[in-house]
Specification:
With 391 residues, this protein is α/β, with parallel strands linked by helices. 40% of the residues lie in helices and 15% in strands. The protein has 13 helices and 15 strands. Bound molecules: pyridoxal-5'-phosphate.
Length: 391
Amino acid sequence: MHVRKRLLPMAPPLFPKNRLFCPGPTPVPEAGLIASLNINEYHRSSAFEHTFKTCRDWLAPFFGTSELPLILAASGTGAMEAAVANLTGKDDPVLVVNAGKFGERWQKICSAYQCKVQCLEVPYGKAPSPKDLIKCLEASKEKPKAIFLQANETSTGVFFPLEEITRTLRQSYDGLIVVDAISALVAHEIKMDDWQIDCVVGGSQKGFGVAPGLSFIGLSKRAWRELSKRPRFYFDLLQEAKGQVNGRAAFTPATTLIQSLHASLKILNEQPLEAIFEHHRRCANAVRAAAKAINLEPFVTENFSHALTAITVPDQIDAQQLIKLIRSKDGAILAGGQGNLKGKIIRVAHLGFMDRLSLISGISALEFGLAELNHSFSLGAGVSAAMQILK
Ligand SMILES: *Cc1c(COP(=O)(O)O)cnc(C)c1O
């Protein structure tokens, strides 16, 4: 006879509910949910085209550019691929910063597109220093056509000192700088024009509080001038730009997501940008304080992200088991580590539409889970530490 084995006897929660604390997807505001229910929208109506154009206008301040970003129907990686396809040619030398899973993704895309990829490897948990980049440039035989990096490495919770990096690079480098800011936008200030970044990539399900499926890409004037001659079709950005000036995507846009984006951006635009960034900074500080108060250590010491916090769990606790437990008991979804960090860290996102009460519930879910696994700490200490910072 077959005996079903149960490792942990986990009854379903009494009140099932998903509570998102992972770095994408993030919580969607009610106005966004309601807007996305309008499924019978025609994408060539003037009302929809107006919505589309408004979204582009409202996205621009987060990118810090006067060149309006394009909206693509694809997950964030689609816009990353669009950047590589439109800005590099076959055999172009490129430099990729690899400080985690998403740096690795740049490397993979550039390799797939047959660029000559030089890689600056940065240890997990650290940010590249401007000096490292300059050294790397000086050591390369050919000037890279483009440098690809993240603003925020989501796999480790590190924010790169982007302003310092770009300012230093621009003293000697006049090629393209391409930044994957998918998990940084809305949490951190990005000034594409001021910092002379040529391409910034974003995604709907991170800071913007929209379900997955949209990505954004902003190009500088220089980038528009230096488009490569590769064959491309769906991600032909010049083709997109021609129609999107009038709110018309080249192909059928994801109408429900665009309407949801419009609702999110409307809310975000009612706040000064600084207030939004300050909120994210406080959330990051609150989670870091909470971690310490419950005898855990934040994984990142310097250059920590304001979008998410990676926390090291003690050896005797398996992070994956902890995450499963928290999810099954309270429906709270935290993320684990990726690659060789799997089982060693948990990641708590505080990105986008995460208010302080929600964040506190996430910390309490973590405490409940830790208590069940007999971690030694005083129950409620994390919540209390977080409240001190969020008050
Ligand atoms: C989420 C994310 C992506 C894109 O992932 P998709 O699953 O394609 O949306 C890329 N880069 C970073 C830094 C991210 O956080």
